[in-house]
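Subject: for your reference before the review

Hello V.,

The reviewers asked for a structural picture of the protein, and I figured it would be easier to keep everything in one thread rather than splitting it across files. Below is the amino acid sequence we used in the manuscript, unchanged from the supplementary table.
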Amino acid sequence: MKLKKIVWLLLGFVGLGLGALGAVLPILPTVPFLMLALFSFGKSSQRLHNWFVGTRLYKENLESFVNGQGMTRRTKAKIMGTITLLMAFGFCMMLRAGLVLPCCLLGGIWLAHILYFVFGVKRYRPEE
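And here is what came back from the structure prediction:
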C-alpha cells in the first residue's frame, strides 16, 4: 500500500473517531470531523468509503448536506453552539492576555461563521 493511501486512511479513522466522540460530547463538533472522514476514506479506499456512507453516523449528520439538501435545524444549532463555545474560550484567553487585535479578528470570524450557517446553509426538513 502506498504511503499516501496510508496517511489518508489514518486521517479518515482519526476523523471518524473524533466525529463519533462529537456525537456524544457537546463540546466537540461532529460534522467537520465526519466530513474529514468522508473525504479521507474516499481518497484511501472505496470499500471504506462505501462502508462509512452506510453508517448511521453518516446518515444522521451528513447525508442531507452532502446530497445538497441542507442541514436540519438541530444539526446547524449543534455546529453553531459548539463553535461559539470554542471561540468564546479562545476569545477569553486572548483577552485575558491583552491581545485585542486577535480578539477582533476572532470575533469577525465567528460572525462570518454564524452568518454562513444561518443564511448560507439550506435548512433541511425531513419528511415526517
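For the response letter, the relevant points are probably these. The chain has a mean pLDDT of 85. The radius of gyration is 17 Å.

Happy to draft the paragraph if you're swamped.

O.
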